[in-house]
Amino acid sequence: MGEFDLIKRFFVREQGQTGVVLGIGDDCAVLAPTPGMQWLVSTDMLVEGRHFLSTVAPERLGHKALAVNLSDLAACGATPRAFTLALALPRADASWLTGFSKGLFALADAHGIHLVGGDTTQGPLNISITVMGEAPAGAALLRSGAKPGDDVYVSGSLGDARLALEVFRGSISLPGEQFAQVRAAMECPQPRVALGQALRGVASSAADVSDGLIGDLGHILQRSAVGASLEVDLLPCSAVLAAQPLALKRECGLAGGDDYELVFTAAPAQRAAVQGAAEQSATPVIRIGRIEAAAGLRLLDAEGQVLSHQFSSFDHFKS
């Protein structure tokens, strides 16, 4: 199977999608932005052995490759519109490509985003996706808007992906059903696109939790020139993680990464609106801390005592 046969068989779909004048098949795609909207663009790369294990099912990998990019759009409150796919493959394996494209397009269709181009080549397995979305002019959520006194929130549940990784590493063991649950969290994250859109005009800042809550909240603090206190034992987690030793539970929740939830801030006056956004998007959120003027991130236990810690988030060149 040649390169262009591969593209036509697994990735070309019918034209005529909203905002797409011309998709795959030319040197460039032609897109038509909605009047009054601004475009938001983000790129993520997944490398085998670094971002995913060789044992992951291709359908789940197709899902995750797009999900991690959609999570960036969610953090900015954007509506997904189009994406490109650059794919390096060791070989043209029809069975693998069938599963990968199935998972990719199932998530794409669920969020109304369209594949409009990209590239394929032979090499070690590497997946790079660029997503494009839009939001009303001036309405995109950014990391730079947090103010002292704002509440800090997080969506969904944290830590299961890291717990699954520890099972793969052999440092812990879980019964089969529990392992399947946390493995699904690692391999099939659900981007919080609807929540991000519902938080436009409500949240003062936002980021997606991809490298770990400490690091990703830290980006908000840095960009906003503020600090924060977090009540670490309020972090939402699954029953599987809740049953683990406290030290492991905190490690997974604070520094685990691969969660693809949203961490965001909002003024106390917006508490009802935040809950309304959660209900509108069918996504649970919980208030876990407070933005402060003093720089730095302080972790508080259930008694309000500051915890000393050495937690750090994922860094591609340090981990």
Automatic annotation (TrEMBL):
Mg(2+) 2 binds at residues 44, 72. Mg(2+) 3 binds at residues 27, 72, 208. Keywords: ATP-binding, Kinase, Magnesium, Metal-binding, Nucleotide-binding, Thiamine biosynthesis, Transferase. GO terms for molecular function: thiamine-phosphate kinase activity. Residues 25-134 form the PurM-like N-terminal domain. Mg(2+) 1 binds at residues 43-44, 119. Mg(2+) 5 binds at residue 211. Pfam families: AIRS, AIRS_C. SUPFAM superfamilies: PurM C-terminal domain-like (SSF56042), PurM N-terminal domain-like (SSF55326). InterPro entries: PurM-like_C_dom, PurM-like_C_sf, PurM-like_N, PurM-like_N_sf, ThiL-like. Substrate binds at residues 51, 258, 314. ATP binds at residues 118-119, 143, 210. It comes from the Bacteria. Its EC number is 2.7.4.16. Mg(2+) 4 binds at residues 27, 42, 72. It catalyses: thiamine phosphate + ATP = thiamine diphosphate + ADP. Pathway: Cofactor biosynthesis; thiamine diphosphate biosynthesis; thiamine diphosphate from thiamine phosphate: step 1/1. Residues 147-298 form the PurM-like C-terminal domain. Gene3D superfamilies: PurM-like C-terminal domain, PurM-like, N-terminal domain. Belongs to the thiamine-monophosphate kinase family. Catalyzes the ATP-dependent phosphorylation of thiamine-monophosphate (TMP) to form thiamine-pyrophosphate (TPP), the active form of vitamin B1. Reaction mechanism of ThiL seems to utilize a direct, inline transfer of the gamma-phosphate of ATP to TMP rather than a phosphorylated enzyme intermediate. HAMAP family: TMP_kinase. This is Thiamine-monophosphate kinase. It comes from Roseateles albus. The gene is thiL.
